[in-house]
Amino acid sequence: MHIETERLLITRLTEEMAQSVHENSLDADNRRFVPDEVFETVEIARETVEFLISCYESGDGPLVYAILLKDQTNIGYVQAVPMENGVWEIGYHIGEKYTRHGYATEAVQAFLPAIMKNLQLTEMLGVCLKDNLASVKVMERCGFEKIFEGAGDYQGAKREICKFIYRL
């Protein structure tokens, strides 16, 4: 997959991206909202990137793609993750020093139609913590409909969450 927007490139991860994947994962919001996606060392990031690269061939997921600025700076990722019963969930993260520029919204808007066509989906789920206001706003801007707000399972714990659905 290779998607180009006005400001971004969305493309497959490469092993050379391990350093930037590590650095982008260390910010406070990532630690707070998706702690299982924090890579404390470059080696842990490299092992994860190698695993994620192997997922492209199987197509089973997670299908994680780098978000790059036009100058090739890796600023984050967007992903489709298989859940139960054929349902897929979108995920995304923009490194802290690149936030508040609309990059997540731009990436998600470009990624959704492409990945859904590729996976032959008509719906995509989005789940975030209720207090992750940036993610809530991204999903709203991208046309997701809120279908649930309240206590729910989030990374193995009961937390206040919002669930969204995007339909083609």
Walkthrough of the structure:
The protein has an eight-stranded mixed β-sheet with strand order 1-2-3-4-5-6-8-7, with helices on both faces. Strand 1 and strand 2 (8-12) form a beta hairpin. The protein is α+β, with helices and mostly antiparallel strands and 168 residues long. The chain has one domain (2-167): Aminopeptidase (3-Layer(aba) Sandwich). The chain has five helices and eight strands; from the N terminus they run E-E-H-H-H-E-E-E-H-E-H-E-E.
Strand ordering within the main sheet: 1-2-3-4-5-6-8-7
| CATH fold title | Aminopeptidase
Strand content bin: 35-45%
Main sheet summary: 8 strands, mixed
What's the order of the H and E elements? EEHHHEEEHEHEE
Would you report the number of β strands? 8
Oligomer: single chain
> Please, what is the CATH homologous superfamily?
Gcn5-related N-acetyltransferase (GNAT)
Fraction of helical residues:
25-40%
Note the topology.
Blueprint: E1 2-4, E2 8-12, H1 18-25, H2 28-33, H3 42-58, E3 63-69, E4 74-82, E5 88-94, H4 103-119, E6 123-129, H5 133-141, E7 145-154, E8 157-167
Parallel strand pairs: 5-6
Antiparallel strand pairs: 1-2, 2-3, 3-4, 4-5, 6-8, 7-8
Sum up the structure in keywords.
8-stranded mixed beta sheet; about 35% helix; single chain; about 170 residues; 5 helices; alpha+beta; Aminopeptidase
